[in-house]
Amino acid sequence: MKVTNSNYNPNQQTIAPNTLGKEAFLKILVTQMKYQDPLAPTNDTEFIAQMAQFSNLEQTVNMNENIQWMLYMLGTGFDSSNAFSMIGKNVEIETSSGIIQGIVEKVTKKDGEFMVEVDSVLYPLNKVNTVALAKDSSNNGQNAVEGDENE
Question: pTM (2 decimals)?
Answer without folding.
Answer: 0.41
